[in-house]
Design a protein that fits this description.
This protein has about 160 residues and is α+β, with helices and mostly antiparallel strands. About 30% of the residues lie in helices and about 40% in strands. Strands 2-1-5-6-7-4-3 form a 7-stranded antiparallel β-sheet, with helices on both faces. It is globular.
């Protein structure tokens, strides 16, 4: 169902893809938007156990698209160094494909929000987290993308550097 990467030498192994997902702070979620047009939206996220978690408003383009169709992709770019004299960029990126759904149980929503809080506000106290959840959870949707396929790729120049030590 999913294509194999054409430039196999540039493909990142799964453990490096996961390292990129864990390191990056935002990515772009792509879904089928209004009128069949693609809709791609930058989002903060948390990765845990083969799943990506996002928060959302209860209404809007993103949540409507997810409710209409569950297939999605999520792309993160860890590195994008422009090398003008070579007319290229030295990049590392990951694309995850899967199905996205809305979490409905309060405890699973809180657990996902905790993953996000731990990533973006690691020094936050349990009390502040609870206050934030009490205030915002009723008006927050929490989405999960279950990864079915993932690819990572880096610039051929970075592959050569790694091979040469």
């Amino acid at each position: 169902m999913f294509r194999e990467m054409r430039r196999k030498k540039q493909e990142l192994p799964e453990e490096e893809c996961l390292a990129v997902l864990n390191k990056c702070t935002y990515g772009v979620l792509a879904v089928s938007g209004d009128g069949g047009y693609p809709y791609a939206v930058p989002l903060s996220y948390a990765y845990d156990g083969g799943k990506l978690y996002f928060h959302s408003a209860l209404e809007g383009h993103k949540i409507d698209a997810v409710r209409r169709g569950d297939k999605a992709s999520f792309c993160v770019v860890e590195r994008d160094d422009v090398v003008a004299e070579e007319y290229t960029t030295y990049f590392r990126s990951v694309i995850a494909f899967g199905r996205v759904s809305e979490l409905t149980g309060e405890e699973e929503k809180i657990a996902a929000m905790k993953l996000l809080a731990d990533k973006y506000a690691p020094d936050n106290t349990a009390e502040r987290f609870r206050q934030s959840i009490d205030r915002s959870l009723p008006r927050t949707a929490v989405l999960v993308l279950t990864i079915e396929h993932m690819t990572g790729k880096e610039a051929v120049e970075l592959v050569k550097r790694r091979q040469n030590g």
